[in-house]
Amino acid sequence: MPAEPCSVTACTNPGTLTCSICDQPKTRYCSAACQKQDWTTHKRTCAGAQKHNCFIIRTTAPNGSTNPADRIEPFPLSAYGNWIVEMKELQQRLGWPHADEAGKFYSHQAKDNHWYYYMYASSAPGLPVNDIATRCRHHAREVRGDVAVVRSGPEGFASYEETFCRMELLKTVNYYNTANSSEVFGQRERSRFGERSGFPPGFLDAHGLTTMHFS
Protein backbone atom coordinates (compact mmCIF):
# COMPACT_ATOMS: atom_id res chain seq x y z
CA MET A 1 0.00 0.00 0.00
CA PRO A 2 1.55 3.33 -1.04
CA ALA A 3 2.38 5.86 1.66
CA GLU A 4 0.10 8.85 2.12
CA PRO A 5 1.40 12.05 0.49
CA CYS A 6 3.54 14.62 2.25
CA SER A 7 1.46 17.22 4.11
CA VAL A 8 3.21 20.14 2.43
CA THR A 9 0.78 21.26 -0.25
CA ALA A 10 3.33 21.85 -2.98
CA CYS A 11 5.12 18.53 -2.35
CA THR A 12 4.11 15.35 -4.20
CA ASN A 13 6.52 12.95 -2.49
CA PRO A 14 5.21 10.12 -0.30
CA GLY A 15 4.97 10.96 3.42
CA THR A 16 7.16 8.25 4.90
CA LEU A 17 7.90 10.23 8.07
CA THR A 18 5.47 11.40 10.75
CA CYS A 19 5.34 14.19 13.33
CA SER A 20 6.41 12.45 16.53
CA ILE A 21 4.32 14.64 18.87
CA CYS A 22 1.04 14.48 16.96
CA ASP A 23 -1.97 12.49 18.08
CA GLN A 24 -3.26 9.80 15.75
CA PRO A 25 -3.52 10.07 12.80
CA LYS A 26 -0.09 11.66 12.67
CA THR A 27 0.77 14.32 10.11
CA ARG A 28 3.07 12.95 7.41
CA TYR A 29 6.13 14.39 5.69
CA CYS A 30 8.60 13.19 3.12
CA SER A 31 11.61 14.79 4.79
CA ALA A 32 12.83 16.84 7.73
CA ALA A 33 13.08 19.83 5.39
CA CYS A 34 9.37 19.68 4.55
CA GLN A 35 8.46 19.26 8.22
CA LYS A 36 10.50 22.33 9.15
CA GLN A 37 8.91 24.30 6.32
CA ASP A 38 5.41 23.35 7.51
CA TRP A 39 5.96 23.90 11.24
CA THR A 40 4.65 27.49 11.36
CA THR A 41 1.32 26.21 10.05
CA HIS A 42 1.28 22.79 11.68
CA LYS A 43 2.00 23.99 15.24
CA ARG A 44 -1.39 25.78 15.33
CA THR A 45 -3.18 22.42 15.32
CA CYS A 46 -0.52 19.90 16.39
CA ALA A 47 -1.59 18.32 19.68
CA GLY A 48 2.00 18.26 20.88
CA ALA A 49 2.32 22.03 20.60
CA GLN A 50 -0.83 22.94 22.54
CA LYS A 51 -0.25 24.24 26.06
CA HIS A 52 -1.97 22.95 29.21
CA ASN A 53 -1.34 23.25 32.95
CA CYS A 54 -1.02 19.49 33.51
CA PHE A 55 -0.01 16.35 31.63
CA ILE A 56 -0.23 12.66 32.47
CA ILE A 57 2.80 10.44 31.83
CA ARG A 58 1.46 6.91 31.41
CA THR A 59 3.36 3.75 32.32
CA THR A 60 2.57 2.51 28.81
CA ALA A 61 1.07 4.08 25.71
CA PRO A 62 -2.63 3.26 25.24
CA ASN A 63 -2.00 2.31 21.59
CA GLY A 64 1.00 0.10 22.39
CA SER A 65 3.42 2.58 20.82
CA THR A 66 7.06 2.67 21.94
CA ASN A 67 7.27 6.41 21.24
CA PRO A 68 7.55 8.25 24.60
CA ALA A 69 5.46 11.11 23.19
CA ASP A 70 2.46 8.78 22.98
CA ARG A 71 2.66 8.23 26.76
CA ILE A 72 2.27 11.96 27.48
CA GLU A 73 -1.36 13.13 27.48
CA PRO A 74 -2.87 16.54 28.27
CA PHE A 75 -4.88 16.61 31.48
CA PRO A 76 -5.96 20.22 32.13
CA LEU A 77 -6.78 20.94 35.76
CA SER A 78 -9.57 23.32 36.70
CA ALA A 79 -8.18 23.56 40.25
CA TYR A 80 -4.61 24.70 39.73
CA GLY A 81 -2.06 26.55 41.83
CA ASN A 82 -2.58 24.89 45.21
CA TRP A 83 -1.34 21.38 45.87
CA ILE A 84 -4.29 20.48 48.10
CA VAL A 85 -6.92 21.27 45.45
CA GLU A 86 -4.76 19.77 42.71
CA MET A 87 -4.50 16.48 44.61
CA LYS A 88 -8.25 16.46 45.30
CA GLU A 89 -9.10 16.92 41.63
CA LEU A 90 -6.65 14.22 40.56
CA GLN A 91 -8.14 11.78 43.06
CA GLN A 92 -11.67 12.50 41.87
CA ARG A 93 -11.03 12.42 38.13
CA LEU A 94 -8.52 9.56 38.03
CA GLY A 95 -10.01 7.44 40.78
CA TRP A 96 -6.83 7.48 42.85
CA PRO A 97 -7.27 6.54 46.54
CA HIS A 98 -4.83 9.33 47.35
CA ALA A 99 -2.47 11.54 45.33
CA ASP A 100 1.10 11.54 46.65
CA GLU A 101 4.10 13.63 45.70
CA ALA A 102 6.18 11.54 43.28
CA GLY A 103 9.14 13.87 42.85
CA LYS A 104 10.45 16.91 41.02
CA PHE A 105 12.72 17.50 38.06
CA TYR A 106 14.11 20.57 36.37
CA SER A 107 13.73 21.45 32.70
CA HIS A 108 16.32 20.53 30.10
CA GLN A 109 16.91 24.27 29.71
CA ALA A 110 19.82 25.25 31.97
CA LYS A 111 18.46 28.78 32.46
CA ASP A 112 15.23 27.49 34.02
CA ASN A 113 16.04 27.30 37.72
CA HIS A 114 13.07 29.32 39.02
CA TRP A 115 10.64 26.44 38.50
CA TYR A 116 10.53 22.69 38.12
CA TYR A 117 8.16 19.95 37.07
CA TYR A 118 6.26 18.49 40.01
CA MET A 119 4.82 14.97 39.85
CA TYR A 120 1.83 13.41 41.60
CA ALA A 121 1.21 9.65 41.67
CA SER A 122 -1.47 7.33 43.02
CA SER A 123 -0.97 5.71 46.43
CA ALA A 124 -2.56 2.47 45.18
CA PRO A 125 -0.36 -0.62 45.75
CA GLY A 126 0.94 -2.98 43.08
CA LEU A 127 1.20 -0.49 40.21
CA PRO A 128 3.80 -1.03 37.46
CA VAL A 129 7.01 1.00 37.44
CA ASN A 130 6.88 4.20 35.43
CA ASP A 131 10.34 4.22 33.85
CA ILE A 132 10.08 7.79 32.53
CA ALA A 133 9.05 9.26 35.89
CA THR A 134 11.66 7.17 37.72
CA ARG A 135 14.43 8.37 35.41
CA CYS A 136 13.44 12.04 35.78
CA ARG A 137 12.82 12.04 39.54
CA HIS A 138 15.26 14.16 41.57
CA HIS A 139 16.08 11.35 44.03
CA ALA A 140 16.68 7.72 43.12
CA ARG A 141 13.50 5.82 43.89
CA GLU A 142 11.04 3.93 41.73
CA VAL A 143 7.89 5.78 40.74
CA ARG A 144 4.90 3.53 40.11
CA GLY A 145 1.78 4.06 38.06
CA ASP A 146 0.73 6.97 35.88
CA VAL A 147 1.90 10.38 37.08
CA ALA A 148 0.41 13.85 36.73
CA VAL A 149 2.93 16.60 35.95
CA VAL A 150 2.50 20.31 36.66
CA ARG A 151 4.89 23.22 36.90
CA SER A 152 5.74 24.55 40.33
CA GLY A 153 8.47 26.48 42.02
CA PRO A 154 10.09 27.34 45.35
CA GLU A 155 8.51 29.98 47.53
CA GLY A 156 9.38 33.45 46.35
CA PHE A 157 9.90 32.40 42.71
CA ALA A 158 6.70 32.92 40.73
CA SER A 159 8.14 34.14 37.42
CA TYR A 160 7.37 31.13 35.26
CA GLU A 161 4.72 30.17 32.74
CA GLU A 162 2.20 27.78 34.24
CA THR A 163 1.19 26.15 30.96
CA PHE A 164 3.45 24.06 28.76
CA CYS A 165 3.16 21.69 25.83
CA ARG A 166 3.90 18.03 25.21
CA MET A 167 6.87 18.95 23.03
CA GLU A 168 8.54 20.87 25.88
CA LEU A 169 7.97 18.06 28.36
CA LEU A 170 9.20 15.46 25.86
CA LYS A 171 12.45 17.37 25.33
CA THR A 172 13.03 17.31 29.09
CA VAL A 173 12.12 13.61 29.35
CA ASN A 174 14.59 12.82 26.56
CA TYR A 175 17.25 14.97 28.25
CA TYR A 176 17.17 12.64 31.25
CA ASN A 177 17.96 9.66 29.05
CA THR A 178 21.60 10.68 29.56
CA ALA A 179 21.59 13.38 32.27
CA ASN A 180 21.70 12.35 35.94
CA SER A 181 18.53 13.77 37.49
CA SER A 182 19.97 14.02 41.02
CA GLU A 183 23.05 15.88 39.82
CA VAL A 184 21.01 18.25 37.66
CA PHE A 185 18.60 18.96 40.50
CA GLY A 186 21.43 19.71 42.91
CA GLN A 187 23.17 22.01 40.45
CA ARG A 188 19.99 23.97 39.71
CA GLU A 189 19.18 24.30 43.41
CA ARG A 190 22.66 25.69 44.09
CA SER A 191 22.32 28.07 41.16
CA ARG A 192 18.97 29.32 42.41
CA PHE A 193 20.22 29.70 45.98
CA GLY A 194 23.34 31.50 44.78
CA GLU A 195 21.31 33.89 42.66
CA ARG A 196 18.95 34.65 45.52
CA SER A 197 21.87 35.19 47.91
CA GLY A 198 23.73 37.50 45.56
CA PHE A 199 26.58 35.14 44.64
CA PRO A 200 27.97 35.32 41.08
CA PRO A 201 26.97 32.47 38.71
CA GLY A 202 28.85 29.24 39.46
CA PHE A 203 30.23 30.52 42.79
CA LEU A 204 28.94 27.65 44.96
CA ASP A 205 30.16 24.93 42.61
CA ALA A 206 33.53 26.66 42.17
CA HIS A 207 34.03 26.64 45.93
CA GLY A 208 33.31 22.98 46.33
CA LEU A 209 29.73 23.25 47.62
CA THR A 210 28.65 20.35 45.43
CA THR A 211 26.50 18.34 47.85
CA MET A 212 24.22 21.10 49.11
CA HIS A 213 20.50 21.10 48.39
CA PHE A 214 18.37 24.08 49.23
CA SER A 215 14.76 22.92 48.68
From TrEMBL:
Keyword Metal-binding carried by entry? yes
Q: Which InterPro entries match?
A: Znf_MYND
Protein origin, superkingdom: Eukaryota
Its recorded name reads MYND-type domain-containing protein
Q: What is the organism lineage in this UniProt record?
A: Eukaryota, Fungi, Dikarya, Ascomycota, Pezizomycotina
A molecular function annotated in GO for this UniProt entry is: zinc ion binding
Positions of the MYND-type domain: 3-46
**Which keywords does UniProt give here?**
Metal-binding, Zinc, Zinc-finger
- Organism per entry: Penicillium cataractarum
